[in-house]
Design a protein that fits this description.
homodimer, 472 residues, alpha/beta, Arc Repressor Mutant, subunit A, Aspartate Aminotransferase, domain 2, Aspartate Aminotransferase, domain 1, eight-stranded mixed beta sheet, 16 helices, 16 strands
Chain lengths: 472, 472
């Protein structure tokens, strides 16, 4: 009735789930999808359906009740209470720059259906449904390894392991190679899902500051000397959250550094195919053959199908495969076969061309809108691809303190604290534009710019007031 | 050309992969699928295709060359060399009792195709392809929780987490609850994939002997007193490898024991639906509500689709869900949606009826053949369902030493050592009949019986000879 599905809520977003749910139901009421007198599902029922805790649903209902949009009747449930005008567009819903995922409305559903058809009608279906190999579905491994060879990223001594997405690739790398005593060098700021994989095992995280041109290699070199890390994880293109890309000469220096020090280098390539302008740069793997390279279909095709991979030297892949076996035996084979077919049929490349065209439009809108709406003193990164850019608010604004004010205006982002390892900048925040339309990007940034302006003025006047004590 | 697929090789089987591959290619040659003069794929190429190490393929080729079935030509590759008669049936292939997985030739492929069709044509496809929730696909969670409630296995305070099969459920349970200092009580013998999950983290494994009626509860009670375990994992029905089932009164006692001691009880229900005779017994979860219950579609539907789950008290599931998120974000959503549809459409129940009918025929054939062919002094379990039974060879036979002799006769099994924790019985072995036809079961057991007989005689005569030293 409220027409909600679990996919519309994002557990990884900063905007808490109860608030996302509140906003969705509020929008359904204002748009007339549910009407005055309609009964909402019981909290327990909705919780199960959406994969939420019951307290999350109760909190959302409490907000709606507070706003007078629903009323609870003891023993009977919660009822909609709204006799106002209906809006036709969900104009009141939040423009969320908080989630780095592709836009659902541009999924190539028909191409997916055709691909799926071809796979399930094929003679391989029996094999796909049977228990598989921990290494992954053979034909997909073959395809990906050939592709990496053609690109010069894999050599004859390399092998491949299929994982359940990039997140599992990182998790298995930690489990196979990193214990509590080990040091790991990560970009700082960095994607929180990457940080958590290593921090929860008690590894020593060494944050290397990210500049416009990626990791600060001087600091990296000093930290290699002093801390003897076991592993370095780098996202060389359109890094999450900064959008930074490592130039070729930095890659060459990084390759020399890791080879001289014998550190394990992990190259996370999940955004590599999302380049909207400029030339593709050689992979770290092609410069340092001992590198373990991570890829995934999630950012370029369908995030709901969990298929990623690691390519690297045979002996290292053998160790990862052993670990993988006791994690979950092997990854889902139907999705592996479908994504292989999607790639081999040329549909992936065709889809990628569309994704890049749309991505370019979003990126340019975002950069233009940043220039136009964000007040002087605000700095922002200028990525050539990916899904996110990094903003630094003018002093003395704090991105975390600003957030509730921005959310009241129905715009959302992730403050820098979620990504920080040791070089925390309170004025930083991530804007993810990948899942929004150009109109939403434009409108969201106009609002953000206005709020930054107002709050900046308010804070500066408060400060100057504080700065003038009475001369008694 | 050789027509091999990764699904035909079983990495978990005792028969090593190189030997399985050798047997498959040998069979292809003898059946004329590849002919005299045909070139075999290069070892590297075949390794990638099948998800194997190159050394595995080289070892298989070496065996074939030794047997004179292929010849290697330097710089040109390996060529088939066989001008003998062709057999029409793969009579020379091994009858493997080593793998506990369903028979591929009975997969309901057409029903799977229809289910898949319905899912991909539905309006939910966009949601399915988008990033999902760590908890799992909402409608599937709802369905499984309702089912568990209807069966009395879940109460109002329970919640559910979808995992990538039962293996991941066990892995996440370990990661959330068991550290190196913790003691875990496991059945002894037990499935090696379960043992490995806990042993690799350095947990103290306490093996509780399994009798015909499951875990020895007297010993369990004593060990709870003396060792203060944190967790007990029990497979109450058709336990792998013994086939043992815990009777109701034992379940009641176990429930009282864990509740009094405050130990976390994990009930592994993956074989529960595979009961071929006798009455279904109440679950442990229904007797001890704090239990965490594991289920999976792998044994009853399609092992290649990785969907399992854990049902338990809300607070424990919340902790598992947090762990799951950093393992792989969430499980594959397409397979979740397909298996939900498979269940809701009634096709799963229909398929299960067939599986039970076929399973009963296999089980009865296996038990009859054991009675007829295995020599006096051999003991075997008499399960009422599942896929495996447990054999104890007459003294002084050793199941591990007997294996190469049995494999030469093209029969395979897993010796007891793979399942043992601390109560190792060298004469024990597992026979998995789930993937074999009644004819194969009959023929395999006839061979096994003959070899046991011959080896037993040989050993006994050797012993009596040793027992009569010269009186010089």
């Amino acid at each position: 009735m409220i027409g909600l599905s679990p996919g519309q809520l994002d557990p990884a977003a900063e905007n808490p789930l109860y608030r996302q749910l509140y906003e969705q139901i509020r929008s359904a009421i204002k748009m007339g999808s549910v009407r005055n007198g309609d009964r909402l599902p019981a909290t327990r029922e909705l919780a199960v359906e959406l994969g939420l805790n019951r307290t999350t649903v109760s909190a959302a209902y409490a907000l709606l009740e507070e706003e007078g949009l629903i009323r609870g009747e003891v023993g009977r449930g919660s009822f909609v209470q709204y006799e106002g005008e209906f809006t036709t567009a969900p104009v009141t819903s939040t423009i969320s720059f908080a989630s780095s995922r592709p836009a659902e409305d541009h999924f190539p559903i028909e191409e997916f259906r055709s691909t799926c058809q071809e796979v399930i009608q094929s003679a391989q279906v029996g094999t796909i449904l049977q228990l598989g190999s921990p290494s992954g579905y053979g034909p997909l491994r073959h395809h990906l390894l050939e592709q990496a060879r053609a690109e010069g990223s894999a050599g004859p001594e390399d092998d491949i392991l299929i994982t359940s997405g990039c997140q599992q690739a990182l998790d298995i790398l930690q489990r196979a190679f990193i214990g509590p005593a080990d040091a790991v060098q990560l970009e700082d700021p960095v994607y929180h899902g990457l940080k958590n994989v290593f921090s929860r095992v008690g590894a020593r995280l060494l944050g290397i500051p990210v500049r416009e041109s990626g990791m600060d290699l001087d600091q990296l070199a000093r930290t290699i000397e002093s801390e003897h890390p076991r592993m370095i994880v780098v996202t060389p293109e359109f890094q999450n959250p900064t959008g930074a890309t490592l130039p070729l000469e930095h890659r060459e220096r990084l390759a020399r550094l890791v080879e001289a020090a014998g550190v394990l280098l992990v190259e996370n390539c999940i955004y590599r195919e999302l380049r909207y302008e400029g030339e593709q740069i050689r992979t770290l793997k092609s410069l340092a053959p001992g590198t373990l390279q991570i890829g995934s279909f999630s950012k370029v095709a369908f995030p709901g199908l969990r298929v990623g991979w690691v390519i690297g030297p045979r002996a290292l892949i053998a160790r990862l495969t052993e670990t993988k076996q006791w994690c979950d035996l092997h990854s889902d084979q139907l999705s592996q076969a479908i994504l292989l077919r999607f790639a081999e049929s040329g549909r992936l490349e065709q889809h990628l061309r569309r994704v890049r065209t749309m991505g370019a439009a979003r990126l340019h809108t975002a950069l233009d809108a940043c220039s136009r709406y964000l007040p002087a003193g605000t700095r922002f990164s200028r990525p050539q691809g990916g899904m996110s850019l990094w903003v630094r608010l003018p002093e003395p604004l704090d991105a975390n303190e600003l957030l509730p004010r921005v959310q009241r205006e129905r715009v959302d982002y992730l403050p820098g604290k979620h990504f920080s390892i040791s070089h925390f900048d309170a004025g930083s925040l991530r804007l993810s534009f990948g899942g929004l339309s150009p109109e939403q990007i434009e409108s969201g940034l106009a609002t953000l710019g206005r709020v930054i302006n107002e709050e900046g003025k308010r804070l500066r006047s408060a400060i100057s007031f504080d700065a003038a004590p009475a001369m008694v």
